Amino acid sequence: MLQELRPGTSARAPGLDDSIERDLGFDSLSRVELVLRIEKAFGIRLPEGLASSARTLRDLLDAIRQGQPQATPAAEAAPRALPPESVAGMPEDVATMVDAFRWHVERHPEREHIALLDGDAIGESISYGRLWSDAGAVAAGLAARGIGAGDTVAIMLPTCSGFFHAFLGAMRIGAVPVPMYPPLRWSEIEEHVRGRAAILANSLARVLVTVPEAMFVGRIAGAELPGLREVLSVDELRSSGATGDARLPDAIAARATSGRDTAMLQYTSGSTGDPKGVILSHDNLLANIRAMGAAAAVTSRDRFVSWLPLYHDMGLIGAWLGTMYHGVPLVLMSPTDFLSRPSRWLWAIHRHRATISAGPNFAYEIAASKVMDEDLQGLDLGSWRLAFNGAEPVRAATLERFAARFAGHGFDRRAITPVYGLAESAVGLTFPPLARGPLIEHIDSQTLASEGVAMPATGAGRPALDVVSCGCPLPGHEIRAVDDGGNEVPARTEGRIEFRGPSATAGYHGNAAATARLFRGPWLDTGDVGYIAGGELFLTSRAKDLIKRGGHNIHPYDLEAAVGDIPGIRKGCVAVFGTMDRSTGTERVVVVAESSLTDPGTREGLRQRIMELAVIHLNGPADDVRLVPARTILKTSSGKIRRAACRDLYERGLLEAPRPAVWRQIAILVAQALVARLRRGARTLGGAAYGIWAWLAFLALATVGLLALPLLPTPHARMRLARAVARAIVRGLRIPIEVSDGEELRIDRPTVLVSNHASYVDAIVLVATLPPHVRYVAKREFERTPVLGSALRRLGTYFVERVDPARGVEDTRELVAAARRGETLVFFPEGRFSRAPGLGAFRIGAFVVGAEAGVPVTPVVLRGTRSLLREHRWLLARGRVEVGIHRPLLPDGADWSAAVRLRDRTRDIMLRASGEPDLVR
Fold first, then answer.
1. Domain limits at 12?
2. Contact assessment for residue 645 and residue 634, using Cβ atoms and an 8 Å cutoff
3. How confident is the model at residue 506 (pLDDT cuts 50, 70, 90)?
4. Residue 753 and residue 847: Cα distance in Å, rounded?
5. What would the DSSP string read from start to end of 893-907?
6. Residue 839's closest CA among 453, 395, 375, 294?
7. Count of structural domains within the chain
8. Do 331 and 344 contact (CB within 8 A), yes or no?
9. pLDDT band of 921, cuts 50, 70, 90
């Protein structure tokens, strides 16, 4: 293992009392791998949690001596039945998370909410009613200590029922819970609590709720925090408020918390010198949970299995609060149980017939490549419909390995669901279409690096990059990619990803400077870089300083400061950064520190001390520690560490290479900056020039068409002219149009064509694509528009009234008569479009025409037009368009109900085919 982790390095033979983390440099993933190898080599089963609890090699040796022989897995017991009945309705009208919980308690208090696993068995089953009562006791205990509305309550607990009691108890009195991650080992609680002091101070926590083992040390550390009144355990709070709701002061119990009130503070994982506590209101949480539920088509018949930590937004909001809202039973195991035996995650899905589960990329990599075949005998993953992969970069190779490994165990590749989110958007931001499986693009990496454009890789030998789509924005949310000047870039162009929507935070608690950096007008900066294609998000890199390892966000600042304080290390000359580990799909943490000391023994001591600090600040070791000469660390002119530049030198093996002369360095930097600026300017000018030229070409061709229309005798002849003009516009603007199921274009019988509406370009695309004998239906406002109204009338367009009901009925009767005469009609049933992706509500008129006239409805799905010309933009962008012509749908009756059914069937097809979120659910 050491040779694999540190290839080509010479080191002394490890001793039995060497620390696995500090001396050998094994992080959590490496420890899991080591334990799995030991079990396989010795044919034994090691104790639970050994991967996390073992500190030295001697601990491992003792465990080997006590290990039990491996047994062939016994036949599995019958899976647990799903809940006997689904929940009737959802708490759609509630204003807070507490109200949502109360909604369930009032309707089905005995319904199972959480099943806490103890190993493979259920250790504790928690109903809605029981959790509400226990949380009420904790709430009373907090209230008795003077904690009230707006006060912050820090919660540092492992995965246990007490976490839910403390979190919900704080919410019930209007207090603000602040989840903090517990230490890897409670024996290191002192260093851990002191390392979290910045979060406790920034959050202004009045109370720290933790395990009894940590209370004494917490009180000592809290002496330096004047705002921290008490350090308490859940049992203490519960016993002082043992009668639950009866002990809650009436004014507190009845407090009508507003949706705008802060529901919780979500701190980024890790300890930072500049704490960022994301303010999430009840409105934010409810908007995100509802949008994710709509995008994932969640129902109370689903079942969620999770091992994700509760201090992380994906485990806290995505798994717990999301399942609570939707009435989905949650089967929960601790992260330690997963790390000690990864196959337990998969068996829990099998045993409980889970339909939903989630994890970061590294979890899927472990399952795909580290779990032994003998641990999978009899495994059935056929119930798993949503395998969310998020919280760290998603690797295409991992997805393919996982799908291939578990296809024989009933796993459907289409269940793989890469997603993207961030704490500033509660948790979720983009989801892909359901049951599609991963969408992976093979991108030319040289073009991406040099021009910032994601072009498909062509030709052998060209360096390529596999980029996984994270899907479309959740309903009601928007994303965009912008350049350094904040200008939105065209589709397939790399830029900084920004978002906005109802889940967006109001900012960071007590950190005005960080909040100011987060916002660009109404948009929020994710700090991540990527491109948008077909309305879907493809991430190419992450925020320059953030390190993602093992599903955790690691910030370098505290560790850099601590290493800089070591005697022998140049203060302010330490860089901590991440570099991708291709074998695990996660990042390796590298520490580079300047030192002028040359004695080998002294330098080895410095490395050991740096490794010790890394274990404390990162909850795991650094993967590589480099001691380098003075002036090796690159800095900006203001003295800030250039971590990205240091990482680049490290990855190219040039970190300690001799530096060119100063004048040469300056010349290179100036040249690189000039080239980059010229390229950006060229892209911006090129985009603007294309947009202006597109308008000129459109106006010229459209003018020719308008002048020629009166000269043609019939609407059919005029439509042929319009089609020729539209095709000339499309060809002239170099907009490639790909038509699927092209044989359906030979319309040999009357039909009603309905299309989604995403852009002003839609009409031109349809006229260029569809046969010339079709007749278009437009809103009556267009008839009164100068020039356009006259042209549409000459083309035989039908106009419908949208405001006056009586006139609207007459218009519909006219359209029914036209359909019965054999005319093919084209509708945009959404009526209008918006900037944000998504399929809106359908007006019923087109489907009434189809049902009453007895003619089929044919869905026509447009993809890509929204990126060409969004709402409120006037310059056309480059891009491609897909037109999907689907098979006609026959009405099953002639009445209103038949029209509604026809509408719903059509919309379902268009929703799946468009790949955009549902704006109605």
1. 2-69
2. yes
3. very high
4. 10
5. -SSHHHHHHHHHHHH
6. 294
7. 5
8. no
9. low
